[in-house]
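G., the chain you wanted modeled:
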Amino acid sequence: MIPATEGLLRLREGNRRFLAGTGRADMLANEARRKELTRGQNPFAIVLGCSDARVPAEIIFDQGLGDLFVVRVAGNIVAPSLVGSVEFAAERFGTKLVVVLGHTGCGAILATLEELTGSTQTHSPNLMSIVDRVRPAVEGLFQGDLPPDEGAIEHLAVRANIRASVDQLRHGSRILERLIAEGGLRVVGAEYSLETGEVDFFEGV
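Predicted structure as tokens:
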């Protein structure tokens, strides 16, 4: 299995190809590759990302079929079923790298900020279940002096939420804790910029 450091390098190189418009993912999704994957999969990275339609991990990292085990949920939050998905891939396939991928302009973050500032009416119970998981990471930003503008608050909130999800994966699962301690598993956090297309790996790298 590919070590976490090599997996990170592959993702960084893929994002550079995406930015340069020289992607090769189409070549990795051909008929031969599809047939090869009927015998099993061997993803080199697990990505817990946001459901936002503008942030498809395979495209922004320029990867093909079978390369990434992607779990997507609004706000890249960590809930039991999502932890189970990460555990499954890490244990079953021996994947060594987990990336929590957030992004600028995240609707779940904006909804949480609106809820905290009282600038919106109460959301549906289902949406609130997402907001309630984001809230603990974000509400601390409202203690003390706030940044001077909403954009700065949003930026801090996105990163705080990513860090919180990384921490939950590192310390909220006995399986993942064991794989981190004994199996070379690495959990890192990254932010995708809708404006530039660049992925910034900033947590645990």
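Residues 150-171 form the longest helix (22 residues).

Shout if anything looks off.
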